[in-house]
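Consider the tokenized backbone below.
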């Protein structure tokens, strides 16, 4: 006999705690436990977060870069909610200040973050390249980075007329970011990050 797990609403997801300390994304009403990721995954996330912070400071931008868990409510096109949790999120300081006293979730009615990063793991590749890519485009997130230490690629997806245009960087190629035009990193530096 199959056991059916009940679907969760967005509000139920925000209140959910199974007592284990595990982190979950909500995908079409279902809880999906987030993989712990490898040390490499963590090093890349931390490296990029620090690089973004340094560029924000250097350019005197009113933004924040966070590699803590900030959820982004996503429209899936049906009646069950989805909430994604990118590896790194860049957002305006004003928006970050608004999240300090409540759940760190950017709801559908709120402005999108400026840039999000997903670091690919074997278990997340399909989601990162397909599902999240289309969801982030619908949410009007201007820039989405897919950092892939498996294929040794950094893909910068830039939103144009509702869809992402991709620019793929590898090895010693300098990464071009519309959000951070003064950014000076190569794909190899990101992929070989050692925080």
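A designed sequence for it:
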């Amino acid at each position: 006999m199959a056991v059916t797990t009940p679907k969760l609403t967005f509000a139920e997801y925000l209140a959910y705690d199974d007592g284990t300390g595990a982190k979950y994304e909500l995908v079409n009403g279902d809880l999906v436990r987030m993989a712990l990721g490898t040390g490499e995954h963590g090093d890349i996330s931390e490296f990029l977060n620090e690089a973004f912070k340094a560029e924000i400071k250097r350019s005197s931008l009113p933004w924040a870069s966070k590699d803590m868990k900030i959820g982004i409510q996503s429209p899936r096109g049906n009646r069950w909610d989805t909430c994604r949790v990118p590896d790194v999120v860049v957002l305006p300081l004003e928006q970050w200040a608004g999240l300090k006293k409540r759940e760190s979730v950017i709801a559908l009615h709120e402005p999108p973050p400026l840039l999000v990063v997903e670091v690919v793991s074997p278990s997340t590749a399909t989601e990162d390249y397909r599902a999240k890519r289309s969801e982030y485009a619908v949410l009007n997130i201007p820039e989405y980075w897919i950092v892939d230490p498996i294929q040794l690629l950094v893909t910068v997806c830039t939103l144009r007329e509702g869809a992402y245009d991709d620019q793929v960087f590898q090895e010693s190629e300098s990464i071009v970011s519309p959000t951070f035009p003064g950014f000076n990193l190569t794909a190899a530096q990101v992929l070989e990050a050692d925080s």
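The mean pLDDT is 87.
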